[in-house]
Amino acid sequence: MGITSCCRCFILALLWFQSQGCLEEERAALLQIKDSMNSSESSAFSNWYVEECCDWEGVECDPSHTRIHKIFFPHLRSDSEPWFPNATLFAQFKDLQELELPGNHIGGFISIHVFRKLKHLRKLNLRDNSI
């Protein structure tokens, strides 16, 4: 096996490892956020049964499909009771650039100070909430 063949194998192995899908801690955090929302909307989270969370509705990942960089959950809660999401769950998304949660009856956040850890966050949309 020549050097060129070894290099090709090495590059293919790197590409395979990098395209393994979203990180388990980000996947787990998404599921906890979903559970805390108590959404009764029938279309909300309709495709969250597939293994790859980068393919889930309302979630976008970076081009390598390893880190989540956008969460978009608009008007998913029809419950009129305020929702107080645990902000520490959002801190799991180290490369998060956009967080959009409009119209979800958010009354405030638990542990709001963790948003400072989101160094890449450039868009935060919380309109139509009760904060």
TrEMBL record:
<dbReference type="Pfam" id="PF08263">
    <property type="entry name" value="LRRNT_2"/>
</dbReference>
<dbReference type="InterPro" id="IPR046956">
    <property type="entry name" value="RLP23-like"/>
</dbReference>
<dbReference type="InterPro" id="IPR032675">
    <property type="entry name" value="LRR_dom_sf"/>
</dbReference>
<keyword id="KW-0675">Receptor</keyword>
<keyword id="KW-0677">Repeat</keyword>
<keyword id="KW-1133">Transmembrane helix</keyword>
<keyword id="KW-0732">Signal</keyword>
<protein>
    <recommendedName>
        <fullName>Leucine-rich repeat-containing N-terminal plant-type domain-containing protein</fullName>
    </recommendedName>
</protein>
<feature type="domain" description="Leucine-rich repeat-containing N-terminal plant-type">
    <location>
        <begin position="24"/>
        <end position="62"/>
    </location>
</feature>
<keyword id="KW-0325">Glycoprotein</keyword>
<keyword id="KW-0433">Leucine-rich repeat</keyword>
<dbReference type="InterPro" id="IPR013210">
    <property type="entry name" value="LRR_N_plant-typ"/>
</dbReference>
<keyword id="KW-0472">Membrane</keyword>
<feature type="signal peptide">
    <location>
        <begin position="1"/>
        <end position="21"/>
    </location>
</feature>
<keyword id="KW-0812">Transmembrane</keyword>
